[in-house]
């Protein structure tokens, strides 16, 4: 043992770069024959969420070879099967099961989906057979016919299964169970190869030492380059149900979906650059969906009436017109600045299927894609094309399972790919239905008295008066998402979200008034709508006392009418939906 270390050390001294590249910069190929996987795309995803390779399956029986770039972290990688679009839109066929524990694969309660760090540079998986799981045929998984010798069979890498099927398959990970492990593996884990050797975090033999400290959970502003627990990255599988966090709608497998789960970290991925293991980067995808026209025109809710009642046709039209999908920029990987950024959909019908360069971030600091217009940032001169204009129909609405890949090229000539999905997509807006000044007596909004306008059906907005010391009480329907494959019903009220007045066009503007954020504590888990008895949120807005004439803005509220957004955001990572209402300040 000692002599082996000595040999490595002396090699490192002789040719430090070559030695480092030797231990890190290994490329891998993974080959297999896929049976029954037509219209799926196979992704090779690293244990920390880097997309290492992908291949589209176009025939019912196809040989594929996936070739990775140089990496020191093949250990933990999984093969994921996602939609290639077309007839397979929205399909997610989970992980490839590389082997199982025990004698009978068909009875296994633990399966192996991850490659081991000591995997052969030429992994041969033989025949992979696709198993359909959900009645719709939209979900399933694949398994190898024989246990692969390259599978990681250690306890920490095992996946909970039922009769050989990873537990998360069939519900996009919604229901899972309890984590097998919770030990502190990190993106740059203890014992991982590292460089330069002989530093505070990297011992003389070039292995990580010490327990890296992760950032607090759920902090969207957490610095790029931070070290995070591998379980918390896009490639991690916190609840060991076989569905990596990037595709799991409920990372930790409790009763609360990611969108409502404040304990779910913002999605991160980590990479190594072939010579060094590196910290994590943010890669978030979410949707913005706002009704900002006068007279509530364009506001949709499953509990609405007449033209305000959400249905597939008006949802499709409204998404086409107003939805933006937002991607967080990756500015730096492995200490090198990003020079070029590219984005594509993986089998997403409304997105480019080949990489398109994103030439700049928008004024908001991220990439805001106006999906229907096929433009980034704006439809005016400030924007640029991403894909082409797209008209959504009733059968091809965006889903939370739609998968995207971002590729970045860094100053040091390396390139990296990352992949993820949005998890959920807003299809309706919050809709306020009554208001008052005492929390007892309410005036109802009559959405049935519609008038036609160039913006579509609207109503004459009521004059909502509020004095400086008065509290405005609002009753609001929650926004909804569509049921996902395997759920019953059509619309689900989104539970556990945060409701905040946003005052970008106030009198004067004070922006978002975080002091009045109320979190929905009544509805804890997304719930099928109940049209017989719609549930509402009650918002209590002390605008005069909490948003104006107080720090941090210290701006006086001026009398007169102004526009407010009822903004609804997930408690977990990303996105918002909003309805604009007019409020009149009377002194
Ligand atoms: Ca999972
Ligand atoms: Ca997730
Ligand atoms: Ca959860």
What is the topology?
Layout: H1 2-14, H2 16-24, E1 29-35, E2 40-45, E3 50-56, E4 61-67, E5 78-83, E6 92-97, E7 99-100, E8 110-112, E9 122-132, E10 140-144, E11 158-162, E12 165-166, E13 268-272, E14 277-282, E15 285-291, H3 312-322, E16 324-327, E17 332-333, E18 336-346, E19 356-357, E20 367-370, E21 375-376, E22 384-385, E23 403-410, E24 415-421, E25 431-436, E26 443-444, E27 450-453, E28 456-459, E29 465-466, E30 472-477, E31 480-482, E32 491-493, E33 498-505, E34 511-512, E35 518-519, E36 527-528, E37 536-541, H4 543-546, E38 560-569, E39 576-585
Parallel strand pairs: 1-9, 6-10, 15-39, 29-39
Antiparallel strand pairs: 1-4, 2-3, 2-5, 3-24, 5-6, 7-8, 8-11, 9-10, 11-12, 13-14, 15-16, 16-20, 17-18, 18-19, 18-23, 20-21, 21-22, 23-24, 25-26, 25-30, 27-28, 30-37, 31-32, 32-36, 33-34, 33-35, 33-38, 38-39
Helix pairs in contact: 1-2
The structure holds calcium ion (CA) (3 copies).
Region (Disordered): 201-227
- The tally of helices reads 4
Low-pLDDT segments, ≥5 res? 1-23, 178-190, 210-224
Helix content: under 10%
Q: What class, by secondary structure content?
A: mainly beta
Radius of gyration: 26 Å
Distance between the termini: 82 Å
Structure, described:
The chain is mainly β. The chain has two domains: 2-284, no CATH class; 431-585, no CATH class. The protein has four helices and 39 strands. Strands 1, 2, 3, 4, 5, 6, 9, 10, 17, 18, 19, 23 and 24 form a 13-stranded mixed β-sheet that branches. Strands 15, 16, 20, 21, 22, 29, 33, 34, 35, 38 and 39 form an eleven-stranded mixed β-sheet that branches. A hairpin with a 2-residue loop joins strand 27 (450-453) and strand 28 (456-459). Helix 1 (2-14) packs across helix 2 (16-24). Mean pLDDT is 87; it is low at 1-23, 178-190 and 210-224. It binds calcium ion (3 copies). Residues 168, 173, 237-239, 241, 243, 248, 251 line the site of one calcium ion. Residues 201-227 are annotated as: Disordered.
